[in-house]
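Q: Here's a chain of 327 amino acids. Please give me its 3D structure as C-alpha cells.
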Amino acid sequence: MSYIVDKEVGFPAPSEKEKINKVLKRYNRILAQNPKRSDTPELMFGIADLLVGRGNPGDHSQAMKIYDQILLRQIPDSLKARALVGKAELMIGSPEEFGNAISLCEKAREILGKSLSEFFAAKTLLVEAELRLARKSGNDWGEAVKLADKVIKEKNAHWYFRGRSFLVKAEINLYQRPEKLNESIKLCNAALKEMKNRFDDYFAYKGKVLKAEMLIRRGQRIDLERAQKLLTDVVEMPFAYKDLIVRAKIDLADIATHPKATRILREVLQMEGVDPYLVEKARLVEKAIKAKSRKVNHLKATREKTKKKKVKTKKKKPSKKGKKRRK
C-alpha cells in the first residue's frame, strides 16, 4: 500500500491537495467498511503519510496519533521502522522531544540497515541530522554534518533527502562559518537543484530563504536584488508555511527603505503564533530602524555603488597631446 501511495501521490506533493483529499477519502472508506483487513496497518500508514504531506491545521497531530496506533499493533519490522521515523520527523518542532526523536531514528536505522538506497533508511539519517541541527547541543552540529554527508555522498539516495541534506550543511555553515559564504551559497544552489521538481515543498522554499540571507550578508553588486526576489517569492507563495513567510518578511524589512520596512515589521508583529525567536528578531530590526541606524535604501545604494565602479573603469588617461596643450 505504501508503494501505491508513493506512486499515486508523489509522497505527496503539497500542490496536489485535491489528489490527496481524494485518496484520503478512499482509504478512510475502505477502513470504515472493513477495519480488520490484513493490510489495515499499511492503509493507516498511507493515511498518516498523506496527512503529513497535506499539512492542514491538525493534520500533523492526527498523523502522530496514527503512527502511535500502528506501533501498538503486530506489524512487520519494515513498517515499524517507517512509523518510527515518521514520528521522529513530526517531533522536529518540539524541543522537549529531541532526544526521544533521535532515539527513534536510531531504532528505525537498526531495522532498515545501512543501505541508503532504501528510501526510509536515508530518511532516518536526514531526519536525525535536522533534529541535531535544531537542538544544537554539544557536538550536534558536527554530527549533523556527518549524517548529511552520508546521504549526499550516496549516489543512490533519494534526491529529496539529498536536497534536504545540502540544506542542513548550508544552514550550519551560515552560522558556524560565516566567512565561507560562497561555499554556503553553493550548497543552497545544490539543494535547490535537487528539489527542482518539488518546487512547492517546504524545504524548497526554505532553501530560497537561506540563500537570500547569505546573499544579504555577502552584499556584492546585485546580491541584494537577487535576495529581494527570492524573499518575495517566499512571501507570495500559495502555501501556509508560516515560519518561512515570517522569516522572509523580516529579511525583506532589513533591506528595505524606512517606511516599507516599518510596515512589513508591523505586519509580522501583529501575526499570532509566531515563533518567539522570530518576534525578537523583528523587534531588533524595528529598533535599528527607529534609531535611524540605516537611513538609506540598501538596494538603491548598492546599485549606485556599482554604477560608480563602472564609471571609474571607463575613465581614460589623457593623451600626451592633451598634456602639452595644458602646459
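Q: Can you summarize the key feature?
A: The chain has 17 helices and no strands.
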